[in-house]
Amino acid sequence: MPVLHVIVDGANVVGSRPDGWWRDRAGAARKLAGKLSAALTAGPALLARGLGEEATDEDVWVHLVLEGAAARVEDLPTHPGLDVVHAPADGDSAIAALAADLAAEPVVVVTADRGLRERVRVSGARTVGPETLLRVLPG
Fold this sequence. Notes:
This protein is α/β, with parallel strands linked by helices. 43% of the residues lie in helices and 18% in strands. The protein has one domain: Rossmann fold, CATH 3.40.50. α2 crosses α3. This is NTP pyrophosphohydrolase.
């Protein structure tokens, strides 16, 4: 079974809920990374199914793309199936490039950004909104 790559637009997911994230961008990045780590620990296949995909626990890789102040956070929660991408410039370009690099395998990009959705669909990626991901994350 091919690996399912889930690319998370960290800024877009964090910004989708007005919970005060703007007062502590580093804390918001840590919280999202922690929830993704917990979901991967509970079962990557459960995460995949929540996003509308089929996969085994061994076949899911999550890429959390962070930009700006969030990209400078060093002490994020980790998991072997979580790749934290610190975007050197804007997150959208990093996400589009990653989706293109992974185009040989199934890719789901989590974002509500319409322009970014169009950019990654060119590479064959499927997209879902932040609420779809947030519904399957613990806590």
